[in-house]
Amino acid sequence: MVEAKHDVLIVGAGCAGMRAAIEAHDAGADVALLSKIHPVRSHSGAAEGGINDGRIAQRPFGAAGAPRTAYAADITGHVLVHVLYEQVMKREIPTYEEFFAWKLVMNDDRCQGVIAWDLLNGGLKSIGAKTVILTTGGAGRLYVGTTNAYACTGDGMALALRVGVPLKDMEMMQFHPTTLSPTGVLITEGTRGEGAYLLNSEGERFLKRYAPNAMELASRDVISRAEQTEIDEGRGINGNVILDLRHLGAEKILERLHGTRELSMTFAGVDPIYEPIPVRPGAHYHMGGVDTDVWGLTEVEGLYAAGECACVSVHGANRLGGNALMETITYGKRVGRHAADWALANTTVEVPPSVEADAERELKELLDRHDGERPWSIRDELAESMHENFGVFRREDQMRKQGEIVEGLRERYERVVVEDKGNVFNNDLTQALELGFLLELAACMVPAGIERKESRGAHARPHDYPNRDDENYLRHTLVTMQDGQPKVDWKPVTMTKWQPQERTY
Ligand SMILES: Cc1cc2nc3c(=O)[nH]c(=O)nc-3n(C[C@H](O)[C@H](O)[C@H](O)COP(=O)(O)OP(=O)(O)OC[C@H]3O[C@@H](n4cnc5c(N)ncnc54)[C@H](O)[C@@H]3O)c2cc1C
After folding, report:
1. Distance CA 68, CA 60 (A)
2. How far is CA 457 from CA 60, 212, 225, 315, 399, in A?
3. DSSP conformational letter for 139
4. Which of 98, 148, 232, 465 is deepest in the core (most CB within 10 A)?
5. Would the pLDDT of 505 be above 70?
6. If we measure between CA atoms, which residue out of 191, 193, 134 comes closest to residue 160?
7. Distance CA 193, CA 67 (A)
């Protein structure tokens, strides 16, 4: 059943995965990409506003001291993904397209490959590798209101967790302040970079009361909290505030924000040249993820992670806009190089038949089940309750309630039924497997949030712990699963040149 063996196998073909593949290839390794969707459909392609790097075409972004976000109109991710894919094709790097990674192969205390479901033909396939790099992106689908695509289900984080790698800072889910109502589609920070206003139901630029200096360019957590407060205190409009671009004029909107205009017209029926856009905070980016060092290496030999699924902790508790794409390119390159060098210096790859047999047995058990609950109802309850109880603001009682809800959903998941028993594009099966991943991640996030008894970055507890507490909590949470239950631990923060500061807006 072993399909192939490689020096380096990269699970995920977004910006981080493709950049890692190019670097590993150029270092002389036999490298392959594996992705559950076609590489150019990876979620990186949805990135709109820009990337902090270099000196070309700079625009202002939230909380940045000066304009430093390079952009290609408001389709920056799309452009990056296509350029990277061209380079992958030029190098003839093999890609397992529409392969769903389900398990990591552990042998001899080392990660030596992946077991994946072949979406086009059906069946489990094992792909051996001396090193595996996880670049599977974020997990925004944990929430009902999110900017993330359906594919963003945190698979790589859960795969790492299942082989004993700790997840770091999982409570740090960033909410983006301008997501389109009702879909959650992102309206880029680039709109505010170009001068758009946020208004409440009284027509007031309410940020003057929360961030009088930075106004609409305050950091995302500050603006999300301000919006949520306005909405909670009755100054919203149908659960939203409004983003006004009209004063920018048609010419600027058409030249620099045409993607935003198209999205607003298609998904909210609003043309921003003439009308303001209804927006609200939505889950956007996971600062937490697989605990790695600065070369992307995890605690498990041979296993690396990069991009949004990793937590090197370059973003701390609050990523600035434009830094995620920068991370994918910078760390994709570093991790690709390290994984290739390690693979070229070490020779063996073996996928033990027992690992394959266990996976086959587990899959058969799931597919043979005919009575039980459908995955979608559990998925909906998870996403709605996470939004309600683990959103922009967090309260102890709500988080504890959410812990119980997640526990109950995990129990129900044990009896989940996949109705489609077929081989070709069995999305019913893959969505059930994704739900398993999501549930485990939620089970890690909630206790980490409860244990962090302070407010920091994306983690806001205004009712019981409104302040940042560096003395006790300037440290990372680390969550592992022990006998199926999350265990929260701590890890010191490595400080180098820049010391933590309190910022005023
Ligand atoms: C709407 C939106 C706009 C954004 N705009 C910006 C911006 O302007 N600037 C910025 O810096 N950041 C932005 N971000 C954040 C940034 O785009 C992402 O953090 C980044 O693109 C993630 O890249 P990645 O390579 O880590 O993952 P992704 O691009 O999400 O790629 C993940 C890959 O993993 C694969 N995969 C996942 N699970 C499996 C599995 N089980 N088996 C096989 N393959 C799997 C997928 O198929 C995909 O190829 C934005 C995010 C969103 C949601």
Report:
1. 6
2. 21, 19, 11, 10, 17
3. -
4. 148
5. no
6. 134
7. 9
Are the beta carbons of 136 and 117 closer than 8 angstroms?
no
For ligand 1, which residues put their CB under 6 angstroms from it? 11-17, 34-37, 39, 42-44, 46-51, 76-77, 100-101, 135-138, 147-148, 151, 155, 186, 284-285, 307-309, 321-325, 328
- Give the whole-angstrom CA distance, residue 273 versus residue 250: 6
* Interval 105-109 mean pLDDT: 95
Going by C-alpha positions, the residue among 436, 476, 452 that lies closest to residue 288 is 476
- Checking if the pLDDT of 68 tops 80, the result is no
**What is the mean predicted confidence (pLDDT) over 277-284?**
96
Rounded to an integer, the average pLDDT of 60-75 is 75
pLDDT at residue 504 in the model: 64
Does residue 499 carry a pLDDT above 90?
no
Q: CA-CA distances (angstroms) from residue 69 to 66, 171, 252, 457?
A: 9, 27, 18, 21
**Pairwise CA distance, residues 325 & 70, whole Å:** 11
Residues 173, 181 contacting (CB under 8 angstroms): no
**Residue 64 in this model has a pLDDT that exceeds 90:** no
Phi (first) and psi of residue 284, to 5 degrees: -135, -45
> Residue with the nearest Cα to atom 12 of ligand 1?
324
Prediction pTM value: 0.95
Contact 447, 171 (CB under 8 A): no
Among residues 19, 59, 68, 192, the one annotated as catalytic is 192
Q: Is residue 342 classed as helix, strand or coil in its secondary structure?
A: helix
Q: Which residues is 117 bridged to in the sheet?
A: 100, 124
Query: What is the mean pLDDT of the segment spanning 14-28?
Result: 98
Determine the distance from the C-alpha atom of residue 190 to the mean position of all C-alpha atoms in its chain, rounded to a whole number.
20
Binning pLDDT at 50, 70 and 90, where does residue 47 land? confident
How many Å lie between the centroid of ligand 1 and the Cα of residue 42?
A: 6
Q: How many helices (H) and strands (E) does the chain have?
A: 13, 18
Residue 51 near residue 329 (C-beta atoms within 8 A):
yes
The per-residue pLDDT for 463 is 93
Pairing state of beta strands 110-118 and 124-134?
A: antiparallel
Choice from 35, 71, 178 to test ligand 1 binding pocket (greatest atom count within 8 A of CB):
35
Both tokens assigned to 253: 């909107």
How far is the CA of 192 from the CAs of 39, 205, 213, 249, in angstroms? 30, 13, 14, 14
